[in-house]
Design goal:
Layout: E1 6-15, E2 18-28, E3 33-37, H1 44-51, E4 59-64, E5 67-68, E6 80-83, H2 95-105, H3 110-123, H4 139-151, E7 157-161, H5 169-184, E8 188-192, H6 196-202, E9 205-210, E10 213-219, H7 220-226, E11 231-237, H8 243-250, E12 255-261, E13 264-269, H9 272-285, E14 290-296, H10 300-308
Parallel strand pairs: 3-8, 3-9, 6-7, 7-8
Antiparallel strand pairs: 1-2, 1-4, 4-5, 9-10, 11-13, 11-14, 12-13
Helix pairs in contact: 2-3, 3-4
The structure holds adenosine-5'-triphosphate and magnesium ion (MG).
């Protein structure tokens, strides 16, 4: 296909006086896996809702395979599969019956529906629980079924809105393996999560939103190059230092922040030369010996913090 699979141009959505999405534009090419990150309330879900046609934009446009979607019955809507942030399942009925219901909404029937249901359940590892009532499922199993529902009609573009949230680490790994398998099968993925390691593993490119706007859209390597200021230096100390001393170090020229874990001091430096020099000088003056020093590339978490002033973990 020529051109991007998805084009989002100048999307705007207001709720009352609040602008939830404020002129968002980006593109996703076929086969790409793109992470969509942002603090709570940044406008990620609202953006995905407009892309999937659940919510009408106040202005702007969404082009799928080069053209806007024309209403709910447009067959090109089948290019899209949305895994919503809130579980969208009928708990009193079985997993199989949920798939039958949602598959019918996608126009699937008979043998095609049964085949699609079987392979979706297989992929998410729920084949042996097909006949069980959803309310007896664990949170992780419900999340996996939520993903299976979105896969039924074999969409080319998957919009995944925090698909692994609220599940234990083991289920999260299982679910994430399913998503990686979809990526290997050539699916195009727009992926929202608060788990940075998932984005580092899955995504070619990262879009960061804050206050309804896109504040970065780049490859991981590109973001890391731009955020030189987020470099970190780890120093192993002969003895631990107290909170007052840590505060002094954090305020030295060239240092953005200092953290201590036992005798391991981590410095977030704006300028490696000035920051490290000042910290080593100060430690020498107070007779603390530095036994080793190492530096590390900024992580996506550091970049996010530098761009938004917040960490994803504490939002
Ligand atoms: N239906 C709604 N009515 C009123 N305000 C809404 C509605 N949906 C979202 N908002 C507001 O729009 C803003 C963006 O919300 P949105 O759910 O898109 O954020 P998000 O980036 O997905 O956040 P999270 O990480 O918490 O899921 C928030 O200020 C939210 O309160
Ligand atoms: Mg959301």
């Amino acid at each position: 296909m020529e051109g991007p699979l998805l084009v989002v141009r100048q999307l705007v959505k207001r709720f009352g006086g609040r602008t939830a999405v404020d002129g968002v534009s980006f593109e996703v090419r076929a086969g790409e896996a793109v992470g969509l990150l942002g603090p709570n309330g940044a406008g990620k879900t609202t953006t995905l809702s407009m892309v999937s046609g659940l919510l009408a934009a106040d202005s702007g446009e969404v082009l799928l395979a080069g053209r806007p979607i024309e209403g709910d019955t447009d067959p090109r809507k089948r290019l899209l599969g949305l895994v919503p942030q809130e579980l969208a399942l009928y708990e009193p009925i079985s997993a199989w019956d949920n798939l039958a219901f949602f598959g019918a909404l996608q126009g699937l029937r008979g043998a095609a529906l049964a085949d699609a249901s079987r392979s979706a359940l297989e992929l998410v590892g729920l084949a042996d629980r097909a006949k069980d009532t959803v309310k007896t499922f664990s949170g992780g199993m419900k999340r996996r079924l939520n993903l299976a529902v979105a896969l039924l009609h074999d969409p080319q573009l998957l919009l995944l809105d925090e698909p692994t949230v609220g599940v234990d680490p083991q289920s999260r790994n299982a679910l994430f393996d399913n998503i990686e398998a979809l990526r290997r099968r050539g699916k195009t993925i727009l992926y929202t999560t608060h788990y940075m390691e998932e984005v580092e593993r899955l995504c070619d490119r990262v879009i960061i939103m804050d206050h309804g706007q896109v504040i970065a859209d780049d490859t991981l390597a590109g973001l890391k190059r731009r955020e030189r200021g987020a470099a970190q230096v780890c120093c192993e100390l002969s003895v631990s230092v107290d909170a007052a001393c840590l505060e002094v170090i954090g305020g030295l020229p060239g240092i953005l922040r200092a953290e201590l874990d036992g005798t391991r001091l981590t410095l977030h430096v704006a300028d490696l030369h000035d920051g490290l020099g000042a910290a080593l000088g100060h430690l020498r003056r107070i007779d603390v010996v530095v036994t080793s020093v190492g530096s590390r590339q900024p992580s996506l978490e550091d970049i996010f913090l530098a761009l938004t002033g917040r960490t994803l973990r504490d939002v």
